[in-house]
Amino acid sequence: QVQLVESGGGLVQAGGSLRLSCAASGRTFSMNPMGWFRQAPGKEREFVAAIMRSGGSTSYADSVKGRFTISRDNAKNTVYLQMNSLKPEDTAVYYCAAARGFNLRDPSATGGYDYWGQGTQVTVSS
């Protein structure tokens, strides 16, 4: 059974940093796209960042570009999201996602991902 487990969320002041981790189990995702999404109260889930297969390209939402960095450690079957210069508007539940296939036509679309974690809360105080 495939599981994605996020960790690293918490409460941080504006301008601070957090590093989220997503550990996958049940299968290897080294050749598969993985992504991070977030959902704030009363809002729809939105794309944050994605990384293609091992050593592949990355993409980011405009709102986080230059502040967030997605990376992966295939030996640990884990993907990370380094978040710097956090803002109150970054407050949300952050979800990790993985695709079953090797490529995604649109890495920012939730429908392209087959597996999801349960989320980790990130709260940024002003």
Describe this structure in words.
- There is one protein chain.
- With 126 residues, the protein is mainly β.
- Helices cover 0% and strands 47% of the residues.
- It contains no helices and eleven strands.
- It has strands at residues 3-7, 10-13, 18-25, 34-39, 46-51, 58-60, 68-73, 78-83, 92-98, 115-116, 120-125.
- Strands 2, 4, 5, 6, 9, 10 and 11 form a seven-stranded mixed β-sheet that branches.
- The protein starts with a strand and ends with a strand.
- The model has no long low-confidence stretch (mean pLDDT 95).
Query: How much is the radius of gyration in Å?
Result: 13 Å
What profile does the largest beta sheet have?
7 strands, mixed
Mean pLDDT: 95
> What class, by secondary structure content?
mainly beta
Strand content: over 45%
Unreliable parts: none
**Approximate helicity band:** under 10%
Q: How far apart, in Å, are the first and last alpha carbons?
A: 40 Å
Number of strands: 11
Q: What overall geometry do the principal axes of the alpha carbons give?
A: globular
Q: How many helices in DSSP terms?
A: 0
Order of helices and strands: EEEEEEEEEEE
